[in-house]
Each structure stands twice: as C-alpha cells, then as structure tokens.
Amino acid sequence: MNVVEIRGLSKRFRVPRAAGGGNVRAVDGLDLAIGRGEIVGLVGESGCGKSTVAQCLLRLLEPDSGSIVLDGLDISHMSGARLRTVRRKMHMVFQDPFSSLNPRMRVRDIVAGPLRSQRSVARDRLRGAVDEVLAQVGLDPRLRDRYPHELSGGQRQRVGLARSLAARPLLLVADEPTSALDVSVQAAILNQVSDLQASLGFSCLFISHDLAVVEYLCDRIAVMYLGQIVETGSRDQIFRAPRHPYTKALLSASLSATPANGFGPGNGFGPGNGAGPGNGAGAGNGAGAGRRRVVLAGELPDPRDPPSGCPFHTRCPIAQFPLCRDQVPDRVVVADGHWAACHFAAES
Fold first, then answer.
1. What are the residues whose beta carbons fall under 8 Å from the beta carbon of 140, sequence distance 6 or more?
2. CA 212, 194, 36: angle at the middle one, nearest 5?
3. Are 299 and 312 in contact (CB under 8 A)?
4. By C-alpha distance, which of 320, 344, 321, 322 is closest to 332?
5. d(Cα 165, Cα 203) in Å, to the nearest integer?
6. Does residue 325 surpass a pLDDT of 60?
7. 110-129 pLDDT per residue, tens
8. Radius of gyration of the chain (CA)
9. Which of 35, 31, 42, 10 is nearest to 247 (CA)?
10. pLDDT tens digits for 39-81?
C-alpha cells in the first residue's frame, strides 16, 4: 500500500513583467508514489522542480492541478483545521541546518514544538520526550539548553531531524538535508536516518543532488527533468541498468572520476568511516564499470517555454528528428517497477 500517491501534479509561477513575464512550469503533470516504509530518492539538476514537489506535497504551496493522496486521504485542496490535522502525519528536514532553526529558541523548545502544537504529550512528560528523541538522533540530552549558534552544523541538523521525528510522522520529506555538511558528518547523519527509518518505519521522500547518497539510502529512485519524472525504478535498476539518456548522463557525471570502482574505495561511504558496507557507495563491482562517458550540451531549457515533444530532446545525445521533437514519449516499462519516458528505452 502506498502512503503517498501524487497524480498529474502541476505548479506554475507567474514571472513579473519586469523579468520578462510568462509562467514558469515548475512541475508539469508529475506522478509519484511512495510506499509504506519506503525511502524514495528524487534526483535531477537544480531548477528541475524537486523542491516545488516537496512543498506541494506538504501543502506549503497550493497545487494548480492534480491530486495528492496521503494515507488514503486526498489532501490536494485541504485547508484550515483539516489540513492542520493531516500535517501531523508529515514533517520536513530542511537543507540549511542553521536558518531552519529559530535562533532565539533553545533546543528543548525547538524539539518540543510539534509535541506542544499537537498536544500529543502531557506537559509534565515533555522534557522526558525531548530527551528521548535527542538521544535517538545521537545527541547528548544535555544539549537541550543550548541555542542553535552554540552547536556545530551536524548537531544543528540532528536537532532539525529530532524536531521532525518527535511527533512520529508517517512521512518525512528531506530536502538536501546533508548538502551543507562535511562528508564525515554527512555519513553519520545518513546512518542515523537509515537506522531511525528501520526502527520507526516512516516513509521518506529524499531529495538530493548526491547520487552516492541516494544509492546508499534509497529503496527506489525517481529521476526528474524540467518538471517531469522521466525514469523511475529500484536502486539497482537505476544504477545498474538506466534506460533514459538523462539518467545515464547524471550517472556518468557522478561516476566518471573512478569508473572502475563505482564511487571510489574507502573514501566515500566506505567501511569504518562512512555509511556503506563494501568499498564505497558502489560497493563491490561498481556501478560505473565500463560505462561510456555522457556529456550533456547546454543548460536546462527555459521552463517558461519548454521544448515540444520530448522535453529532453534539445540536449539528448541519441535524439532522432522529427520523432523526438514532435512526439511526447510514452512511458516504456522495461522491468517490473521500472519505466522510462523515452522513445528508445526498450532499445537501451
């Protein structure tokens, strides 16, 4: 059973006339599902609409069209008290571990915020509940009396994680939660998220640019380009047998430094000092072994005026004309749970 089902989600933003006018198609008819207890990675270039998807899912933004179903309940256009009740089931971990925390509040008050607003813990048990969740995310409960500026970046991000998990959400949305942290701290945070997900059983939408992180943490991956999902599949399907040329380009850019050994032995998420068990996030035989280097030309097209046909055809190394220019590709199912929106996915 899916905890989240997004169908036909669209969101546009009006551009001021002084900046050229028009509408930016940030999300354009997107479909995405997240299973119970599943971690789904959402990847793609900056500006493709990943954060907009997250904000629409949490109803921080009002979708223009489409449906968002959370735990069997359509929340697409909820408001007021009903939306506040549903929001108890979903929380977010933000990218910046400093600006996302109130600098005037102590750690104990930051973490206790969701518990107070939802009245899920009696007042006399609040301190114990805060100490418990701080310990769960690997923080000394004695840090409860500090302010955010008195903590390191990794500690601040753990406080943000504790705040999000305090109320035991059904869905956690993590938007680039480790991008502002050192590699060693990233590994520790990722291990913490993985362990907590296994013990608490929440579902997670994990947004990241770092494919090594996504491969380590996520069960399934959705690749996004210009407001649309162009390929989705399990971790192994995406990393071992990608079918969309855009996915191949992303993997090529990530893996090209050490193609024979995946993400590089021992210094990424490797044994002893990182998150992954083998020799790097591509442990074992390496996802990049023997893969041809793919270099994309140009930048993302202007989302105010996206290309006709396949949205990727202006940068695609295998595009054929006029087919790719004129016809929107269907989703080609290449394996159970694995599809790609490409005219040539079955031939890749």
1. 134
2. 105
3. no
4. 344
5. 12
6. yes
7. 999 988 887 777 788 889 99
8. 21
9. 42
10. 999 999 988 999 999 999 999 999 999 999 999 999 999 988 8
Closest residue by Cα to residue 131 from 120, 123, 141: 141
Closest Cα to residue 98, out of 167, 36, 157? 157
On whether the CB atoms of residues 300 and 45 are closer than 8 A, the answer is yes
- Structure pTM? 0.88
- Which amino acid makes up residue 199? S
Q: Between vectors from CA 213 to CA 209 and to CA 217, what angle results, nearest 5°?
A: 125
Query: pLDDT tens-digit profile of 175-203?
Result: 999 887 888 888 888 999 999 999 999 99
> What single-letter DSSP state applies at residue 264?
-
Collapsing DSSP to helix, strand or coil, 347 comes out as helix
Q: Residue 158 and residue 93: Cα distance in Å, rounded?
A: 9
DSSP annotation of 73: E
Q: How far apart, in whole angstroms, are the C-alpha atoms of residue 299 and residue 315?
A: 8
